[in-house]
């Protein structure tokens, strides 16, 4: 019994010894790791985020507060007591090395508002503050000289300032604080609207400032018809003014909150007042000319104060797959030896430029020639196009006209057409927008005739690949 008790005590003592040994080893390892970690991290150092020669972007507010950022990196065990000072030798050295002629910015143009800075041991950065007098800086432009502000960061306590990142030469770059359209001028691409669009929909227009305002900015945007007239004249264009009932502006949106640099404004396009099936089709290339006319503070960018919002209300090329040429008065197929060429009037509608119609060839009929086309339903027609065969000598059409009808009895002329050169293969002609089911295409003149002295009455040899129509179904 006594022997058993001795064995139990001996085993207990061993367990306690092992436990203390484990704790000792664990503590040693932890202290060893901590020491290694600290040894790998460098002592605290100070440096400018941006050093050397650089532009200082300032805005012409009268006075402008510019902040120069300083960083502290390292173990984080030391505070930094720093001073910012003017360093004329720095500027002289820069001028000598770069063959430049910068002069120190006059004292009335700036104030070192914060030239002493304390960064605590736990902080990683701080900022010096420089107050620029933009009114006085503006006056310097008349002197024809270049000015700069050479500054150095110096340590007051024992913390190290990295020498390669301790100096900066600031060149004040003065900008006017503007409000502007983000994408001024004529829209990069037109907003195309169609019958598939909603009756009205909103288009975002972005307004922006080149600075952060400390207060709310109110502004005004108006439609400027003179701007459209000026653009058309300067660019030999003929854009139309978007009708008043085809858009809506929202003046209640015309403000930027303090600190807000941009905002999307809404312009509502009222499609139904341009395209409204079945009876309203105001086709055309429209412009809504917008101008920023007022802002509650500072200025409007003169280069970005206008926006020409381009609205394209265009017809589309109509499908001709079921259309039919129901009458004509000249075809090469009328001559037996040319029947196999298959150059018949229906080729004008087959969407294949390699096939084409040819007029009566060996014994041409007197002009005019015509084609009567059944579009199978009432269409609103706005443009008509002709496509000649690729062979440069083919074609020969010169003049004619288009007519439209709903009943094959009453015909309305919707446009004359004329081609100035037989060499051009494709032609598109604007016509008076008109509704009808039947289209008559008439050819009255050619470039050459069977007998040029007699003219159209002697007839002409000609070919045509396609007749296209633009409009709305």
From TrEMBL:
Pfam families: BT_3987-like_N (PF08522), F5_F8_type_C (PF00754). Residues 313-441 form the F5/8 type C domain. Gene3D superfamilies: Galactose-binding domain-like (2.60.120.260), hypothetical protein (bacova_03559) (2.60.40.1740). It comes from the Bacteria. This is DUF1735 domain-containing protein.
């Amino acid at each position: 019994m006594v022997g058993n008790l001795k064995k139990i005590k001996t085993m207990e003592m061993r367990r306690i010894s092992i436990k203390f040994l484990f704790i000792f080893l664990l503590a040693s390892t932890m202290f060893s790791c901590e020491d290694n970690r600290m040894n790998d991290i460098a002592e605290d150092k100070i440096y400018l985020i941006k050093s050397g020669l650089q532009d200082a972007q300032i805005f012409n507010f009268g006075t402008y507060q510019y902040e120069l950022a300083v960083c502290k990196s390292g173990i984080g065990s030391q505070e930094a007591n720093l001073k910012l000072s003017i360093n004329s030798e720095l500027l002289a050295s820069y001028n000598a090395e770069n063959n430049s002629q910068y002069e120190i910015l006059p004292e009335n143009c700036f104030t070192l508002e914060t030239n002493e800075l304390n960064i605590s041991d736990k902080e990683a950065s701080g900022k010096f503050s420089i107050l620029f007098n933009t009114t006085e800086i503006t006056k310097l432009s008349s002197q024809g000289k270049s000015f700069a502000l050479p500054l150095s960061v110096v340590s007051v306590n024992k913390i190290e300032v990295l020498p390669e990142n301790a100096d900066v030469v600031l060149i004040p770059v003065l900008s006017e604080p503007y409000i502007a359209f983000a994408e001024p001028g004529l829209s990069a691409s037109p907003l195309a609207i169609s019958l598939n669009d909603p009756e009205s929909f909103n288009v975002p227009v972005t307004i922006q400032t080149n600075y952060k305002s400390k207060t709310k900015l109110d502004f005004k945007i108006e439609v400027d018809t003179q701007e459209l007239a000026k653009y058309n004249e300067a660019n030999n264009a003929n854009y139309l003014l978007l009708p008043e009932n085809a858009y809506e502006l929202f003046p209640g949106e015309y403000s930027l909150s303090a600190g807000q640099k941009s905002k999307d404004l809404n312009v509502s396009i009222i499609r139904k007042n341009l395209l409204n099936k079945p009876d309203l089709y105001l086709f055309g290339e429209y412009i809504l000319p917008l101008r920023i006319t007022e802002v509650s503070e500072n200025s409007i960018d003169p280069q970005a104060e206008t926006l020409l919002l381009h609205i394209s209300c265009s017809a589309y090329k109509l499908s001709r797959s079921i259309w039919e040429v129901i009458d004509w008065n000249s075809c090469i197929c009328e001559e037996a030896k040319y029947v196999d060429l298959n150059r018949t009037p229906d080729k004008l509608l087959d969407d294949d430029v390699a096939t084409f119609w040819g007029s009566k060839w060996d014994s041409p009929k007197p002009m005019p020639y015509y084609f009567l086309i059944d579009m199978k339903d009432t269409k609103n027609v706005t443009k008509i196009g002709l496509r000649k065969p690729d062979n440069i000598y083919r074609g020969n059409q010169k003049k004619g006209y288009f007519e439209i009808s709903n009943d094959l009895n009453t015909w309305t002329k919707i446009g004359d057409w004329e081609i100035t050169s037989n060499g051009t293969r494709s032609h598109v002609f604007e016509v008076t927008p008109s509704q009808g089911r039947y289209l008559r295409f008439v050819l009255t003149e050619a470039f050459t005739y069977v007998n040029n002295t007699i003219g159209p009455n002697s007839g002409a040899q000609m070919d045509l690949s396609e007749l296209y129509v633009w409009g709305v179904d």
